[in-house]
Design goal:
Blueprint: H1 10-30, E1 61-64, H2 75-83, E2 89-92, H3 101-119, E3 124-129, H4 131-142, E4 149-155, H5 172-176, H6 182-187, E5 197-203, E6 223-230, H7 241-252, E7 260-265
Length: about 270
């Protein structure tokens, strides 16, 4: 039986909170650097070596940030993937004024089509932090995105909805992340034949996931793996080296059997 968050030892909570605060401080310094999109292949010099085509390298990896964030949250994860052989890493910034998950998912689909056309790869892998994972999941399940996304890795994504910070419901997209919202009901609809592999990293010390465990994926039609992370909070998921190692394992491996659960300890 899972231990409810209020029963965890106070020291563990203090350590996770302190780590999240330290990460938040560093992220605020990097945040202004993430407003602009990175240069794409079309912007590089003509003599730049073209990227390998499908079958000769890892598929492109597209990273999708969370609510009121930007691509700067993935600086350390990008470095980790790059050092271990991933050469084609891209990001998408969606506006903090975005008010609708289906609309954001359609925009994500357009970006993925552009990446596939530009690189020659038929499919991509996607990493989504928090809301970013929900946007990508909606694209897969509701907009036929399973044709394009091979593996979707989510980090602290409220797959079953979160009821944290009720006052935040003033924002329309936060209301869509609430349990029982229209978006949540759509994601529970049947998805027979879905071709995307889903891997959710969820933390038992994530204060933004209420109830704890809501970041797990539980759907009978989906090929899922839920990886429990202990000892870190919400902001640490995209930057912790142990989580990065888990992501590299996922993206570098073959498809897993549906319903598999795993664990990562960073305490």
């Amino acid at each position: 039986m899972r231990i409810p968050p209020f029963q965890w030892p106070p020291l563990m909570w203090l350590q996770a909170t302190a780590l999240d605060l330290a990460i938040l401080t560093g992220h605020l310094l990097l945040y202004p650097t993430g407003f602009t999109q990175e240069r794409r292949d079309a912007d590089l010099p003509a003599d730049t070596t073209k990227l390998p085509t499908e079958g000769r390298a890892h598929p492109p990896v597209l990273m999708v940030h969370g609510f009121v964030d930007n691509r700067s949250v993935f600086v350390l994860l990008r470095r980790s993937l790059s050092r271990h052989g991933w050469r084609h890493l891209e990001f998408i910034n969606y506006s903090p004024l975005t008010c609708d998950i289906p609309t954001a998912a359609a925009t994500l689909g357009e970006r993925i089509e552009e990446i596939c056309a530009r690189t020659g790869h038929r499919r991509v892998d996607v990493i989504g932090h928090s809301l970013g994972g929900l946007i990508a999941r909606y694209y897969v399940q509701r907009l036929d995105g399973d044709e394009r996304i091979r593996t979707l890795v989510t980090l602290g994504t409220p797959h079953e909805g979160t009821s944290v910070v009720p006052i935040a419901s003033a924002h329309p997209i936060v209301r869509q992340m609430r349990p029982g919202s229209a978006v949540m009901k759509e994601l529970r609809l049947p998805a027979p034949g879905c071709r995307t592999r889903f891997v959710s990293f969820w933390s038992d010390l994530d204060p933004l996931m209420t109830p704890v465990g809501t970041a797990r994926i539980d759907h009978p039609d989906l090929d899922t793996e839920n990886v429990r992370v202990t000892g870190v909070g919400h902001l640490a998921l995209p930057v912790h080296p142990a989580v990065a190692a888990g992501i590299r394992r996922v993206l570098g491996s073959e498809r897993s059997a549906a319903g598999v659960d795993g664990a990562v300890s960073v305490a």
